[in-house]
Amino acid sequence: MVNAVADSPILQVFDLHRDFGGVHALKGVDLEVARGSITGLIGPNGSGKTTLFQVISGMDPDATGEVRFDGESILGRKPYQIYHRGLARTFQLSRVFPDLTVLENLVVAAHRKDKGARSRALELLTRVKLQDYTEVKGSDLSYGQQKLIEFLRVLMSEPSMILLDEPAAGVNPTLRQTLWDMVRHLNGLGTTFVIIEHNMEVIADLCREVYVLAEGEIIAQGDFAKVREDERVLEAYFGKRKL
Ligand SMILES: Nc1ncnc2c1ncn2[C@@H]1O[C@H](COP(=O)(O)OP(=O)(O)OP(=O)(O)O)[C@@H](O)[C@H]1O
Ligand SMILES: [Mg+2]
Questions:
Q1: Within 10 A of 191 (CB to CB), how many other CB atoms are there?
Q2: Around Cβ 205, how many Cβ atoms within 10 Å?
Q3: Overall domain count for the chain
Q4: Does 193 map to a domain?
Q5: Which of 112, 138, 169, 240 lies most in the core, judged by the most C-beta atoms within 10 Å?
């Protein structure tokens, strides 16, 4: 029998709106993420990308519309409820605990009663070649290392889906490569990703499906080769029509 769950989208967003006083940050956003995919979310600064992640992850309770994760409605759920269902995210600005060591930062991010947390933390650190940093305080890490540790923190809960908000911004090329390799590796194991990223080479390389937001609206979707040619996308990015 065909597995209906495996074929169904892991995330569906319908008609999402978010108004900040006068700023209509999301204007009826529809989006669908295939299970096991890496989906790109691009768009100019201020187009609503982070706001969309805020809403999906339960951190912005004031949006209207519908968000379904694994077939269940999650709009209005608390962030920890969504996180415990297996939908995790990173932040545009790193949120590593400065006074905890690297190892502690990872272990506290695991689900409670997770006996394997410490060994999994060490395994993750080894995979990104930060195994010698276990006892280093969060505040003593470089910005790029903090971003990577934040990503590893998210992995500690073994989520089925991860929203990454510009994870490579401010990260040096070596660590950046490590980060993208890790994304590819986890995706190979079945983890679904949505990635906000301004580097179009990365988007073209990693993402099967790309959504383009501009002024709170999805103006294009499809593979990167298709959306990069889209007239509305060119206009949103360059303010001119395609020649
Ligand atoms: N808490 C808030 N209060 C008021 N306005 C907000 C708030 N958060 C976001 N906005 C506004 O909503 C719009 C979308 O912002 P958002 O941060 O989602 O954009 P973004 O696409 O993530 O941009 P960037 O690429 O610069 O990160 C912007 O006009 C922003 O100023
Ligand atoms: Mg943003």
A1: 19
A2: 13
A3: 1
A4: yes
A5: 138
Q: How far is the CA of 71 from the centre of ligand 2 (A)?
A: 27
Q: Are 35 and 8 in contact (CB under 8 A)?
A: yes
Q: Whose CA is nearest to atom 1 of ligand 1?
A: 20
In a domain, 175, yes or no: yes
Ligand 1 atom having least distance to the Cα of 43: 21
Distance CA 96, CA 215 (A): 31
Residue ranges near ligand 2 (ion) with Cβ within 5 Å:
49-50, 92
42 located within any domain: yes
CATH number of the domain where residue 21 is located: 3.40.50.300
Which residue's C-alpha comes closest to atom 31 of ligand 1? Answer: 46
Question: How far does the centroid of ligand 1 lie from the alpha carbon of residue 45, in Å?
Answer: 8
Check if the beta carbon of residue 9 is closer than 8 Å to that of residue 33. Answer: yes
Q: Does 101 map to a domain?
A: no
Atom 26 of ligand 1, residue of closest alpha carbon? 45
State percent of the chain over pLDDT 90. Answer: 84
pTM: 0.93
pLDDT, tens digit, 9 for 90 and up, residues 67-82 = 999 999 999 999 999 9
End-to-end CA distance of the chain: 50
Task: Say how many Å lie between the CA of residue 222 and the centre of ligand 2.
Answer: 21
Q: What whole-number distance in Å separates Cα of residue 41 and Cα of residue 192?
A: 14
What are 120-156's pLDDT values in tens digits? 999 999 999 999 999 999 999 999 999 999 999 999 9
Does residue 46 have its Cβ closer than 6 Å to ligand 1? yes
Structural domain range at position 228: 4-92+159-238
